[in-house]
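INFO  loader      accepted 1 record
INFO  loader      residues=210
INFO  predictor   begin
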Amino acid sequence: MSGGGGQVGGGRDAGAFGPWLGSMLAVLRDQPGATVDVPCDGCTACCESSQFVLVEPDEHAARSMIPAELLFPAPGAPEGYSVLPYDEHGRCPMLGSSGCLIYEHRPRTCRAYDCRVLAAAGVDPGPEKPAIGRRVAEWTFRVDGAEDEVALSAVRSAAVFLEEHGDELPAGTPPPTQLAAMALEVHDLFTGGPPAEPSEVIVELGRRLR
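INFO  predictor   done
INFO  writer      dumping tokens
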């Protein structure tokens, strides 16, 4: 991959990297009106991988669709925040035979989730989430030009740094999806390659991510 463009990934079209990165950063930063269109094409891997779903207090539409007995107080979160657990098979209880039963009113966490963030950062979701891992391995980003190449390389350098220095972060090493999202958030710090002074980057990471 060099020169005017190319591809990186395993074969399933993930879209153009540059526009996706901009949209994903807007979603992660909770900018008004920000959305990301995930081409799931029927995939429900994230709904079947033993993942808790955070439901925030103001998500009235989602709460009206979820049976109250399925919502539990979110550990460590302020009052009013809830989690939707998974069943003994790792499936979200709102997942039916034809997909999400509340798709149009799904929680914000589900709307923002995009497993392409793991592919972009080169982060493995782990052996306990094989379905997500298979999907991540399939994604192929189109990389158009040097700017996209630099950005992609910076995202992956940031992910490696976070994995290597996770124990120095205020909250410790984050789980894979959060780590990949953090790598996107701070990739601009790595556009020139790995930092010469890791301690300075740790301080900046703490400032940005607190």
